[in-house]
Design a protein that fits this description.
This protein is 49% helix and 12% strand. The protein is mostly helical. It has a three-stranded antiparallel sheet. The radius of gyration is 23 Å and the shape is elongated.
Length: 160
């Protein structure tokens, strides 16, 4: 697995300003240009006070404007499913529907517990290879990648 921080808020002031302006948008008649000017003229302490007040009231959507973009590769489809089902972020994932894996190596994740037992590990690897063989056979027979993908296991690697 590889994780790269691709883009982010670069400092605490930028973070506080983004949350503050998001909160002020909900409670101010000012337009965005005016809000940005106001934010420049508002002290750090006053911004924090407003943010605390808004969050205490249960208005948490202002936090959704804080963003980080990560590039994650080499995780299992099982892992990516857990990430995307807890919808706290936006995701773009390698598509098993549109990517034809028949001409590519088949990477998969091996759970640590299986890795501990050499006999089970061999069976696991054999099964992963069988899944890839069936996938390749279906694609060569003219089955679309979007249908052939149904034989790929949750252990198949993905990028998100």
């Amino acid at each position: 697995m590889e994780v790269i921080l691709f883009d982010r808020i670069h400092n605490a002031i930028e973070l506080i300003d983004r949350i503050y302006i998001s909160a002020r948008t909900c409670y101010s008649p000012l337009n965005h240009t005016q809000l940005c000017i106001e934010a420049e003229q508002t002290s750090y302490e006053d911004k924090l006070d407003l943010i605390k007040k808004v969050l205490k009231s249960g208005h948490h959507s202002v936090l959704e404007h804080v963003s980080f973009t990560y590039l994650i590769s080499g995780i299992s489809r099982s892992c990516s499913h857990q990430l995307v089902r807890n919808r706290i972020a936006s995701y773009s994932q390698a598509s098993q529907r549109y990517i034809n894996f028949s001409d590519k190596s088949f990477d998969f994740v091996t759970p640590p517990e299986i890795n501990k037992d050499s006999e089970l590990l061999k069976e696991y690897i054999d099964f992963m290879n069988l899944c890839k063989e069936k996938y390749d056979k279906f694609v060569k027979a003219g089955i679309k990648a979007e249908d052939a993908r149904f034989v790929l296991p949750n252990a198949a690697c993905t990028n998100i």
